[in-house]
């Protein structure tokens, strides 16, 4: 699916509304010159950027700080073969401003990991694309 | 999650067993020098390579034929914050052998799209990695 015209393109507002529904997405980046992907829970900031909470000095942070990455989320129902996918593409940056860090510690994404120091990463929503698959009968 | 040591690494056999449970994964590649990701249904071949069914001349095929890509699948439960993720990294190639094409037309992945000519793409499972997150209480 999702490789020809048999889907509906979603506008930016639809994409952001769908993104806000799911807790986990996937950061897509390059690591040691190979394509890499890492699932991570996230939240959306008021400016529609994607907020990640990771640990200082993590491999992920080292790989993506200052780099354009993609962030993908989706939902599919195998029974109806329907679903959607949204991709945010933009620069990822570590949040270094202390006030911003304090704000995100209160209102940003929580961690799915045991307690640890938090480092927040923001992915700007420079490009937001999405597609909806409405479901088709199974065919070979 | 999945960015420090608080998860369990899965061995290749566990990864393949989990991959076989889900119908949809995500191809991770580079498109116009940017990270790109596309959800697609798939199946596993007997040699553990990932099989995709797409349409001839699709953007995806043009972008990944002959290239090393990552293919990711996962399952997460937001309530328990538990789940798993598996990534297969390897070269993607269009299946050009007529006998192989015929075999996959019978036993390969079905399409979630309306009927169309099929083109099969195989992603070799050169590297298979996976991680399990067992679930932790929510913490900020």
From TrEMBL, chains A, B:
Domain of life of the organism encoding this protein: Bacteria
InterPro entries: Pyridox_Oxase-rel (IPR024747), Split_barrel_FMN-bd (IPR012349)
Alphabetized Pfam families for the sequence: Pyridox_ox_2
Protein name: Nitroimidazol reductase NimA-like FMN-containing flavoprotein (Pyridoxamine 5'-phosphate oxidase superfamily)
């Amino acid at each position: 699916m999702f490789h020809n015209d048999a889907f509906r393109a979603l506008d930016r507002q639809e994409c952001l509304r769908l993104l806000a529904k799911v807790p986990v997405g996937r950061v897509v980046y390059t690591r040691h010159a190979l394509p890499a992907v890492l699932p991570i829970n996230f939240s959306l900031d008021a400016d529609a950027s994607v907020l990640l909470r990771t640990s200082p000095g993590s491999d992920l942070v080292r790989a993506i700080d200052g780099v354009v990455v993609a962030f993908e989320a989706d939902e599919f129902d195998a029974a109806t073969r329907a679903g959607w996918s949204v991709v945010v593409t933009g620069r990822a940056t570590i949040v270094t401003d202390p006030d911003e860090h304090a704000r995100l510690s209160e209102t940003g994404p929580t961690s799915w990991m045991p307690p640890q120091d938090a480092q927040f990463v923001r992915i700007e929503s420079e490009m937001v694309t999405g597609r909806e698959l409405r479901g088709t009968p199974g065919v070979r």
